Structure formats: structure tokens, C-alpha cells
Amino acid sequence: MPVPSSCRQWGQYRAGRYGETSSDRPGSESGAEVWDGFSRNLGGPASTDFEIADGTAAGCGARPMRRSPLRGSELGEAKLERGSEYISDPVVEAGSLSALIVLLTPGNAARGGPGRGKRGTVVNRVVSEKHEGALKPDSVSTKQERIAGLARNNPAMALTSLNHYLDAEWMRYAYECTRKDGAVGVDGQTAEAYALNLECNLADLLDRLKSGRYRAPPVRRHYREKPGGSERAIGIPTFEDKVAQRAMVMLLEPIYEQDFMDCSFGYRVNRNAHQALQVLHKGVMAQRGHWVVEVDVRKYFDSIPRAELRAILARRVADGVVRRLIDKWLKAGVLEAGQVHYPEAGTPQGGTISPILSNVFLHHVIDEWFTRVVQPRLRGPSTLVRFCDDFVMLFAHKPDAERVLAVLGKRLGRFGLQLHPDKTRLVDFRPVRGSIDGGEETLPTTFVFLGFLHAWGVSRKGNKVVRQFTAKERLARSLRRFNQQCRVMMHWPLNVQHDRLGQMLKGHYAYFGITGNFRRLTRLHRMVTRVWRRWLSRRSWKSTLNWQRFERVLERFALPVPRIVHPYTSL
């Protein structure tokens, strides 16, 4: 029999050659097979491109869930058929190790994309994305959509019953969404050790969360370098605590995504820093926001008053189990230098639940106040762009900017926050500035937001445009990291060094690769090449690696060239 050329002929070919019938082939209307100890019914309607066999059970001896044959990037290449529920979206934030689990509800879709003047179309659909290689189960998506519908239809109601949504599948998905390569907490338990008896551990964790017997362990203090030479204190929870916090975040996100405004971009589903930069660019160019108030809150995560935070949470969440768990995480101690101390204010920065708590607090303190109280009293248009605790305000008139800056400190002071006196300032961001009188104070003309220096430039057509360059502090910090990495892997094989440097450069391009920033990217690429050659020359004291020999190395191990990843600004 000749080799067939169509799907129908291929089925006839297999049936004639191997004696198969329709009931013998997987996916037919009859027949079953044993799969990892479970009987899987192959009957029913035509299946989609992939499926997940749920192997979880109530007992601790249940077999683990078998994953989809398509995972990672393969899922992104799978064709979306009509009626399919699973699609893949691009990575939400550059440099992140995982994509977010997005729940597209009417409230989320109504916000549309940033930079659009009109609201988006209401879409009543649940979309599942890749998150640490896990797919959101249908039951979790249905529950989150139900929670989002209650919050959207009752904007002034506090939800009193949420903990009943927690079940074994919910906890399993929270575990799948938790990073497995993070630093360990005070107990030293790794993700691999926790997974040895995963089903029993998750069942025990679920029981302790609901019964109130769960105790939040102290967080391990770690310090990270900040621009300017200062350090930022980070709290590292235990792995089990991360899973528990992720489960609570999955409950809170559908509620507050209906309340958050378009001006907020930090740590939200389907939103990232580049969208904030795009809205900022449009606010300056289209709405003539030439007077910029650059705001920095001093030690925001460490100074959030917990009484005010509880009062704000009580407006939307009244479930006793959820509220007690949040209180336990707020009161968890901090282990530093062998001693445990208990701060009286702040949220556990570094924890999974900390970003959404900080967003909820600033949504009430800044976003609602600016939109409902400040903007109706201004002479001209204004724009607020906030990424967690970093935000800027754009104004078309200087008196409006001065009035808001004068009352902003009082507004934050009512909620226990303080403005940083050196980093909070008024910026004269006009493209053409007039003469300055002798007694008038000279204002700064550039500002830094989200790692980008914003300054005026000239386009190819000769027009004044806003340029966004890599800030000097961020460029210097990136070079220090490349230098430290080359020093550590000096004696590694060349192919391993090349792979590591390539990953770091691609991550840098993915965030800083925007229109107008190509020169800074090229500068970084050139300096990283020099740093790599210098450390390769120190591998031996007998000889050095000159440029002629190093060029032959680069012919085989060429570093990734700079490229523009986000071409959203006009030339």
C-alpha cells in the first residue's frame, strides 16, 4: 500500500497495515487504557490538543498529578482551536522567571490597555497562562471568576465567606505557582525537601490554615544593595509560608483587581513597568504634562501602619480566616543576627503577600484621593503613574503642581507615611524654557522613573520628543554585576561562561531595550566584552589574552547584540 498523503488516507493505511480499528486507537469513541495506575476513559467528544489528568485525592497517598505533554514554550506554540480554554501570552514583565496567572473578567477587561482613551471590551472568559510550568485548573479559574463577579457586582460590600474556596486543588496550584529556586527561610527547608511528601504536606497546611492552628514563622533578614549606596532590608519566608501566602493572594487578587485603577501598574496581573513608561510618555507628549512631581515615600514597606491597613482591608474582606492569617503575617518576627524582633509597623517585604497589601494601601491613600479629590479641582489635565511605592504626577500648569506638592505630605502624614525630602521634588520638564529671573529658584529638568532617565531630545524629523535612557545608577549597577559574575566564573568552561553572560545580556535588553536607548545598550555590550576579556586574561599568570586572540574567541562565542524589544515611542 502506498504511503498516504492525507489524514483520512493515513487512518486507512494504519488500519490496513496494522489491523487497527477505530476502537483500538486512543481518542476513539470507545476503549480505555490504564495510565500511571489510573483508568482513563478515552470515550466522549473529540479532545483538545492537550489535557491534564488530575491525580490528586483526599488521602496523603495520592499519586501526583501528571502534567500536560505540552509545557513551557511548547504550550506557547500550540495552536488555539475553537472552544479551547488555554492560550499563552508573552511574558508579562521582562526579567521575571514566571508569567502571571491572568483572570480576564469583565472588570479586568474594562480597563483595556494603557494609553488607550476608550475602555476595552468586556470579556467574560478565563485565560490560563504559564506560571512556573503550571496550568491553572478549571476549578480554580471558576472559583476566581465567581469571586471577581461578586466583587464587581457589589463594589461597596465586604465579602464574608472566602475560606471555603480553599481546597486540595487550590493548594496544589498555589504550590505550583511558588518559585522553587528561591532562598530558604529560617527552617532551611528547600522546595525539593518539601516535595518529598507533597500531598501530606499540602493537606496538613490546608487543615492548619482553616482551623487557625497555622503559625507564621519569622522571616530571615537579608540586605540588598540600593542605588546610592544604601541597603534595602528583605524578609525571606520559609517555603511553606510562601505557599500559604500564594494561596491567600489567589483569593485577594480577584477582589481588588475590580477596584484598582488604571494609574496603578506594579505587581498586578497583565500589567508591567513598560506599560507605565508608555503612559508616562503619552502624558508628556499628548497631554502636555510638562510639570512633573517626582515622589518617593521614605521606607514605605517598613512604615505602613497596620491599624490603617486593617481598616482598609475590612472594607472588602471580612472573612475571619483570611483576616487572621494576614494579621499573623504582619506580626511575624524578623530573624537577624540570631535574634528575633517584632516590628510594630510595616509589611513583610519580600513575602508573596506583601505587594498586594502595599497596592491596596496606596490605592486608598493615593489613587482614589488623586482621582476623586485632586483632579476635579485642577485647572488643566493631569496624570498619575504609580508602580507600587514609586509614582510621578504630571501637570499641565505649574500652579497645579505646586498646590498638589504642598498638600501631598499632609495626605501621606495622615496615614503614617513620610515623603523623602531629597528625592521628592518638582521638575520643570518643558521642552523650551524661558529666561529665569534672579530670585527664581532653578528647578531640575530631568527625572528618573523605573530605572530610566527622562529627558528631551530631537527626533529624526527634527521634532522635540521625550527620550528614555538607562539611568547612570542602573547602568553602573549592571556593570558591577557583570564584573562580579565574570570574576566568579573565571575558571569555568568558555561555553558555560558564554551561556551565562548571554542570559544576563538578554535580560538587560528585555527591560531596557526601548526606542531611543540603543546607544546605552551598545555601551553596555562593549563594556561587558572588555570585562570578560580582562577576567579571561587572569586565568593564568603565564600569559594574557590579547585582543587578537580574544576576537577569535568571540567568533565562536559571540555575545548577544543589542536590540530594541519595546518600540512604543515615536521617532
Number of strands: 13
* Percentage of residues in strands: 5-15%
Structural class comes to alpha+beta
Give the strand order, joined by hyphens, for the main sheet. Answer: 4-3-6-7
Number of helices, counting only DSSP H or I runs of 4 residues or more? 18
Please summarize the sheet with the most strands. Answer: 4 strands, mixed
Span of the ends, CA to CA: 62 Å
**What share of the residues lie within helices?**
25-40%
Which stretches are low in confidence, meaning pLDDT under 50 for 5 or more residues running? 3-130
Mean pLDDT: 79
* CA-based shape: globular
Q: Radius of gyration in whole Å, from Cα?
A: 27 Å
Describe this structure in words.
By secondary structure, the chain is of the alpha+beta class. The protein contains 18 helices and 13 strands. The chain has helices spanning 7-18, 73-77, 106-109, 138-153, 168-177, 191-195, 198-211, 239-256, 273-285, 300-303, 306-313, 320-331, 354-374, 398-413, 472-488, 494-512, 518-537, 547-556, and strands at 32-35, 38-41, 219-225, 231-236, 291-296, 334-336, 339-341, 382-387, 390-395, 425-428, 447-449, 452-458, 464-470. It has a 4-stranded mixed β-sheet with strand order 4-3-6-7, with no helix packed on it. It has a 4-stranded antiparallel β-sheet with strand order 8-9-5-10. The model is unreliable at 3-130 (pLDDT under 50).
